[in-house]
Design goal:
This protein has 227 residues and is an alpha/beta fold. It contains nine helices and nine strands. Strands 1-2-4-6-9 form a five-stranded mixed β-sheet, sandwiched between helices. A four-stranded mixed β-sheet has the order 3-5-7-8.
């Protein structure tokens, strides 16, 4: 789903071996997540694309509504699907200043799905999200901090990981039930559309990705990568 990724999940557990927090980061150099595998959309097999997209839908729902606190330590570039993963966590710490993050789908000639867009709106607000999405803007670490796309910027991965653990430690004395209910209430409006429209979203993606205009854009983009 995500090409050439090497994710590292750090799970913090309590004495009863129950997960009380998670840090999502990357073991790759300079890349947190390069986004979705574009080759899955170029000349796609409809059945394979359906399985691919359904897995993505379920992955996002599970991460966005996780029953325990989550932190993304963004230690590299994070375009498109990588930005979605980061935004889906409860807290975002990004290594600066040389990496970028954003939903840049329009620059590839495609469109970020509604639930991608809704996630960004929930993080940075309607107006900033609209500008970001229509222009496909990739933000530097400092720019992302200024608009609230990330919560903190640190100079290196080790200090970013320590900050992530520090955030998770805030929940040691907070009721897991109170945390989860508060999170569910706040995030329910963002997930409800996809819960109600998973098949509609899937049908749209399969039809849209096979359109001549999108296929031409993807072909040009893939050719540019070879150069």
């Amino acid at each position: 789903m995500f090409p050439n990724q090497c994710y590292s999940l750090q799970l913090m557990k309590n004495q009863k071996d129950k997960i009380r927090g998670m840090i999502l980061t990357s073991g790759l150099q300079k890349i947190f997540c390069a986004g979705l595998d574009i080759t899955e959309f170029y000349k796609p097999n409809p059945d394979r694309l359906a399985k691919f997209w359904t897995t993505l839908q379920d992955t996002w729902l599970s991460l966005y509504m996780a029953s325990f606190p989550t932190v993304s330590v963004i230690n590299g570039h994070s375009p498109a699907g990588g930005c979605l993963l980061a935004m889906s966590c409860d807290y975002r710490v990004m290594v600066g200043p040389n990496y970028t993050i954003g939903l840049n789908e329009t620059k590839l000639g495609i469109v970020a799905p509604k639930w991608f867009q809704d996630t960004m709106v929930a993080v940075i607000g309607q107006r900033k999200a609209e500008i970001s999405l229509t222009t496909g803007k990739m933000y530097t670490t400092n720019e992302a901090l200024q608009i609230g796309l990330i919560d903190e910027s640190l100079p290196d991965t080790d200090s970013a990981l320590k900050k992530g653990i520090q955030f998770l430690n805030n929940f040691q004395k907070i009721s897991p039930w109170a945390y989860k209910m508060t999170k569910d209430i706040g995030r329910q409006p963002t997930i409800q559309w996809l819960i109600d429209n998973k098949q509609k979203d899937l049908d749209f993606v399969i039809k849209y990705m096979q359109s001549p205009a999108v296929q031409k854009s993807l072909e040009l983009y893939l050719q540019s990568l070879k150069k």
